[in-house]
Amino acid sequence: MPPNPATYDTASESPANPGTLDGMERLWTPAWIARHVAMVVLVVGFLGLGWWQVTRAAEGNALSFGYAIEWPVFAGFVVFVWWREVRHTLRRRRAEDPSPAPSAAAGPEPAAATPAVRRPVRVNRVPAASASGAEDGELVDYNRYLSWLNANPGARPGDYPG
After folding, report:
1. Contact, 50 vs 71, CB < 8 A?
2. pTM score > 0.85 for this model?
3. Is 118 helix (H, G, I), strand (E, B) or coil?
4. Domain residue limits, the chain
5. What torsion do the CA atoms of 130, 133, 136, 142 make, to the nearest 10 degrees?
6. What is the pLDDT of residue 28?
């Protein structure tokens, strides 16, 4: 009998061997071991700081009551981010598993999917032409003045011949 999908998470199982933890080897790379160690060190450190604040609050420092609550919240956030990254890695592994080969009658292979996050594209902006087609006389004079100042960097505005 298959498991109830509403209450059973299969992110760490492989399609070939349901009920196994075949995808877990991805979490034992050197980078992941460093993440596991960092998570444990941060959680223990944050909980230790929380206990220290509790002892300070018991000695009469009222401000420490707030910090005694804050440090365990930080530890919980570290565990949440670590768990989310573990689940994301295991689900990505399942999505990357090769699917059955398409039949020859199915037609040509589909185009590669575009990446979810793309690099930003820089575009040089060009000033738009006026809608009426006629240039404002003061704007033309001002632009001529600015281009003269740009061409003569050592000049003062009073030296402008126009």
Report:
1. yes
2. no
3. coil
4. 27-94
5. 60
6. 84
